[in-house]
Amino acid sequence: MDYFDRFAIPHPSPAIYASMVAIGVTVIAIIAGLTYFKKWGYLWREWLTTVDHKKIGIMYLLSALLMLFRGGVDAIMMRAQTAVPENTLLDAQHYNEVFTTHGIVMIIFMAMPFIYALMNFVVPLQIGARDVAFPRLNALSFWLFFMGAMLLNISFVIGGSPDAGWTSYFPLAGNDLSQSVGTNYYMIALQIAGLGTLISGINFVTTILKMRAPGITLFKMPIFTWSALTANAIVVFAFPVLTVALLMGTMDRLFGTNFFTTSNGGMDMLWANLFWVWGHPEVYILVLPAFGVYSEIISTFARRNLYGYKSMVLSMIIISFLSFLVWTHHFFTMGQGALTNSIFSITTMAIAIPTGIKIFNWILTLWKGKIEFTVPMLYSVGFIPIFTIGGVTGVMLGMSAADYQYHNTMFLVAHFHYTIIPGVVFAMIAGLTYWWPKMFGFMLNERIGKWAFWFIAISFNVTFFPMFFTGLDGQARRMYTYSESTGFGPLNLLSFIGATGLAIGFILLVFNIYYSVRYASRDISSDPWDARTLEWATHSPIPSYNFAITPDAKSIEAFWESKKLGKSLFKGKYNKIHMPNNSGIPFIMACIMFVWGFSFVFGMWIPLIITTIGIFALMAYQSFEIDNGHYITVDKIEEIEKDLRGA
Q1: How confident is the model at residue 20 (pLDDT cuts 50, 70, 90)?
Q2: Rounded CA separation 258/594 (Å)
Q3: Which of 206, 285, 558, 609 could form a disulfide with 553 if both were Cys (CB 3.0 to 4.6 A apart)?
Q4: Crossing angle, helix 135-153 and helix 53-81, to 10 degrees?
Q5: Could you tell me the CA-to-CA distances from 499 to 411, 462, 488, 532 in Å, in that order?
Q6: Alpha carbons 169 and 103: distance in angstroms, whole number
């Protein structure tokens, strides 16, 4: 393939050309706006170089919302293509690219940053910490994720999107069957973003184990913090497997090795095993923090302490352990034998037990509670029946003999979305709405939020429930068209109508943010929900140091007890506070990693060598740099606290 031909768009279309123009216009508008309003210095000082966990959480949040709509456009295109038989909206190749990028964007670049947005903002506050254990690494982890996301998202206008499915199975992902650079983008972009996630995993495990305020033992931590600990423990063990698999896949494509080939000693099933050894724990990396979000919200708005705290913690630990013992159920039909299928069928169904415990604990928390149906509570209560459908169909898929009918059909697509959307997306919207006033100092509009909830909840079921029936009737997933004689048309059209309703729901979510930014009252307390956990004990807006005095928390719900029983959380006097300095190194290193990744994708070896040297040079500079941070004086703390109390 000629060198410059590799930059060409494999499947040019008016939509792609329009996207190129839109990207160019947007970039020019952003640069012009920053220049006109003289915000370059502000952007650099306050955001690009920040190591504040709260600002990093907000940047994760904005990135996740952006990727939610990027992946949502792909979803609408797929539903539109299959809405009627023999549709020609997308050809086969374009459809392959769309469903591939939809899966990658939604799992890696939407769901992951959403959970890390909430973890970054909330976890240090819930344990009474000033920041995370390694603030600069925290900044680096965000910028690596962001640059990985940007690298993948330029693929559809430069070189072509990956087209081998979000699982990128070999030999389909090999050079013979995926000749464009799309799969190179997949390998490198996920490698860069995954490195950032692994750094975050190590950072949060260390933070939670080592930086809790006095009195907060492991079994006095809020459930959301426990969910963050278990999820990040999975990250630490699972993401190195993905890193190794992506490295091997990159070497197969760019250097002619034979790890995953079907000849010369390669083994294509090795990729499938490595991918799912990471891929199935990844589901629980996403779902466990969502369980933590629901636990906080249900307890708050049922006005009761969480039922069965220790059993909730134990169930999360069991789930995190079992998550590594179920990966082979993804290839029940691939000839591995009855004994292996039986073992992994048992482990798959066993994971439903600790999950069921959590469902019953939430229901028992609601029992006799004084329930207040706020927007976060609606998502939390709505999650329970919808997720239960996903869980029950998961047990069906876990039966290896029955899986021969379900495998690779739309039934599987429906099951997956019945777990991930209520189990992650509902939770993230609920958590976003719940912690929004702590993040930004005002509340989202409840009426618009409830409209958005009902559109999303109803439209979700209209979209995905019909897929159970078309799947049982034999409609294969990833099939870009079908004949009228199959009879799939009416239910697929219904799914498209539901997807349109989902789009309206998410548009309402964005409109709610816009409306609330303009019109919501800023005169709210630091605890507008009458919540129970420690993050609501500090001011809104939160000062850079989080707490002027380290909280003295001696129970699971110390803040609730301080309000109801008059117990003091903050004892003693002000002392100077040590804080880390901002640094531009994480951002600069991630930018170099972007160029490094782009060079790797196209096999441009000279820029690759230069950027590699640049990365190691920055690492060396960071290693020898003497930066002892800075202190906030007692006088400054008193001034800030006085201003915040008067705000």
Answers
A1: confident
A2: 27
A3: 558
A4: 20
A5: 17, 8, 17, 37
A6: 14
Q: How far apart are CA 129 and CA 211, in angstroms?
A: 6
DSSP labels, 212-237: PPTT--GGGS-HHHHHHHHHHHHHHH
The residues pairing with 476 across neighbouring beta strands, listed in sequence order, are: 409
Residue 532 to residue 296: CA distance in whole angstroms: 8
Q: What is the mean pLDDT of the chain?
A: 92
pLDDT for 157 equals 85
- β-bridge partners, 631: 578
With tokens 């509009």, the residue in question is: 445
Beta bridge partners of 577: 632
Residue 630 — φ and ψ, nearest 5°?
-145, 165
Using only C-alpha atoms, the chain has a radius of gyration, in whole angstroms, of 25
Q: Is the pLDDT of residue 563 over 90?
A: no
Closest CA to 84 of 598, 461, 481: 481
What does the DSSP assignment read for 226-286? HHHHHHHHHHHHHHHHHHHHHHHHHHHHHH---SS-SSTT--HHHHHHHHHHHHHHHHHHH
d(CA 615, CA 628): 23
- Using a 10 angstrom Cβ sphere, with 0-12 exposed, 13-18 middle and 19 or more buried, the burial of residue 95 is buried
Structure tokens at 80: 């539109």
Which residue type sits at 412? L
Three-state DSSP state, 579: strand
Q: DSSP string of 110-132?
A: IIHHHHHHHHHHHHHHHTT-SS-
Rounded Cα gap, residues 425 and 155, in angstroms: 25
Give which of 159, 166, 24, 158 is closest to 98, Cα–Cα: 166
pLDDT tens for each residue of 453-488: 999 999 999 999 999 999 999 999 999 999 999 999
Token output for 318: 């069991």
Residue 306 DSSP class: P
Three-class secondary structure assignment of 586-639: HHHHHHHHHHHHHHHHCCCHHHHHHHHHHHHHHHHHHHHCCCCCEEECHHHHHH
Question: d(Cα 230, Cα 201) in Å, to the nearest integer?
Answer: 10
Whole-number Å distance between alpha carbons of 347 and 338 = 14
Task: Calculate ∠ Cα 96-419-455, nearest 5°.
Answer: 85
Please report how the helices 268-302 and 426-440 are oriented relative to each other, as an axis angle in degrees rounded to 10.
Answer: 60
- List pLDDT tens digits, range 382-439: 999 999 999 999 999 999 889 899 999 999 999 999 999 999 999 999 999 999 999 9
pLDDT of 581-636, one tens digit each?
Answer: 999 999 999 999 999 999 999 999 999 999 999 999 999 999 898 888 999 999 99
Can you tell me the distance from the alpha carbon of 463 to that of 562, in angstroms, rounded to the nearest whole number? 46
In this prediction, residue 557 carries a pLDDT of 84
Could you tell me which of 222, 422, 207 has the C-alpha nearest to residue 316? 222
* Cβ atoms 241, 274 nearer than 8 A: yes
In angstroms, what CA-CA distances link 305 with 118, 358, 363, 383, 560?
Answer: 21, 14, 12, 20, 10
Distance CA(56)–CA(141), nearest Å, equals: 10
CA gap 348, 274 in Å, rounded: 18
